[in-house]
């Protein structure tokens, strides 16, 4: 089973702060990491490989320092990494085109695994776009996957219900966070990752004249407004009022 | 000169930090409260290779450098100082001397078991009347046929009730003084091995510390580590490495004290603003952070000196002395910043305060570290 995992390097949003005067997120000095849900995709790839054998290739479009992050996925269990640098200008169209061309260049694959969305911009577009461009079936929001020899079944998380979907190979699957708990690499695996290849593929070798179709005009933080309601009556009264307020806000149903 | 971890060391640090946050931190307070040994955590750590840090790969270890080791102990201790010291002793006071002084047979027999965490290691040097003064040791070992018969009491033994492989020091030739001490690899299943009482301590309560009692204990001759009379040398060299572990543990505790203080001081409101806005608090935080940074560099320096080869007693003693005092001072300030809440068991800093103190005491008190440092300067 040949598996391609698409992984994105993102800023660790939990460490990100917003400048209170300009409302701009402060991105400088914020640590980078592999988008959490892409790690779930990686974990699922390892599980499938453990069951069926094969090879896992990690594919990333990102800055040069994303190599360090790809190494983490190699330590987890991927066999090989491919890094394509960000072009000067890029959007979902550019990135998904580059990934598509890279996947075509890799050639043989059975499963492409992606996170349902990246934790920084959370558009959820890359997986479906890839499936569209490659002309292969897709199963999005998979919360569990069962890969068999000739077909794959997945439960799609549709909020209040789940839908079981079946597909033949090749297939693209995007996973949700609940699907698994990504493993930590052992010391030996970290040491072993140093010997696994990370190949640099240039943008030019994959696509010509790529231009973004959308412009990111502005990036602003959204300040969280607190209501600052304090219940000062006796406990029984306060609990009643709190519950009433929560119900009114739609928090309790 | 580059004062930075390399990429691999950073990856190891990140992995251990994630592990500690997920698996060690959430149960630390409970284990401390109950005085419960972190058996399950150690099993998980073994799977990640954290119980075979120095051990060569052919015996199932990761064969890592001392700086990586220091980052592992720091990150574990940042969440649980008890688990930190158990790991430190297992790696640096048990696996390491077997690696360094053991015969091929001893390495083959014991290192894979230690690396896999099938048995936890302990180091039995201290006696009721002999701590850092190894010359006053009273435990004896006498060769009888193909066995050594060991008699004596050891005390303050980390992991004492839980350890399966114990490095034991005993006098084989009383007339030779310090040169009459020998080292043995002892298993807890050997005849005559007994666990004495478990200490009721101030801190590091998840680390079970006990007496070990040897009554006509029979240890096979081939379990002598090094030669007869090598014990003093083995103990000093091993403890130098152990001190790097305690320095790392101390840096972890200090860092935790700082983490907690920063978080709390930004949330706690007094006089209409977070206490972090007050200079009194800011200065405490600045002083803590500065000492921690200095302690960490002394730690890396000692680790680097050990990896370079040659003597590193002075560097290890300096790192241990400074880091342990940093941990205690940081814990005092952290409790102060937390005010009355910091004095309660609801807040982590109360545990850090109790845990920090031991770092100034075990594996050589601060005063002994000063003896070592001065000794190497005034030779």
CATH superfamily of the largest domain in chain B: Butyryl-CoA Dehydrogenase, subunit A, domain 3
The domain tally of chain A reads 2
What's the oligomerization state? heterodimer
Proportion of β residues of chain A?
25-35%
How much is the average pLDDT of chain A? Answer: 94
Secondary structure: elements and pairs:
The complex is a heterodimer of chains A (about 250) and B (about 375).
Chain A: E1 2-6, E2 9-11, E3 17-18, E4 25-26, E5 32-34, H1 36-52, E6 55-62, H2 66-76, E7 80-85, H3 92-106, E8 111-115, H4 126-134, E9 138-147, E10 152-157, E11 162-167, E12 171-175, H5 187-193, E13 198-200, H6 235-248
Parallel strand pairs in A: 1-6, 1-8, 6-7, 7-13, 8-12, 9-12
Antiparallel strand pairs in A: 2-5, 3-4, 9-10, 10-11
Helix pairs in contact in A: 2-5, 3-4
Chain B: H1 7-34, H2 39-47, H3 66-79, H4 81-101, H5 104-115, E1 121-124, E2 140-144, E3 147-158, E4 165-171, E5 181-187, E6 193-198, E7 209-220, E8 224-225, H6 231-267, E9 269-270, E10 273-274, H7 279-308, H8 313-342, H9 348-359, H10 366-377
Parallel strand pairs in B: 1-4
Antiparallel strand pairs in B: 2-3, 3-7, 4-5, 5-8, 6-7, 9-10
Helix pairs in contact in B: 1-3, 3-4, 3-6, 3-7, 4-5, 4-6, 6-7, 6-8, 6-9, 7-8, 8-9, 8-10
Question: Can you characterise this structure?
Answer:
With 253 residues, chain A is an alpha/beta fold. Chain A is 29% helix and 25% strand. Chain B folds into three domains: 7-115, Orthogonal Bundle (Butyryl-Coa Dehydrogenase, subunit A, domain 1), CATH 1.10.540; 121-231, Butyryl-CoA Dehydrogenase, subunit A, domain 2 (Beta Barrel), CATH 2.40.110; 232-377, Butyryl-CoA Dehydrogenase, subunit A, domain 3 (Up-down Bundle). Chain B has helices at residues 7-34, 39-47, 66-79, 81-101, 104-115, 231-267, 279-308, 313-342, 348-359, 366-377, and strands at 121-124, 140-144, 147-158, 165-171, 181-187, 193-198, 209-220, 224-225, 269-270, 273-274. In chain B, the strands form three sheets. A four-stranded mixed β-sheet of chain B has the order 1-4-5-8. In chain B, a hairpin with a 2-residue loop joins β2 and β3 (147-158). Chains A and B meet through α2 and α5 of A and α1 of B.
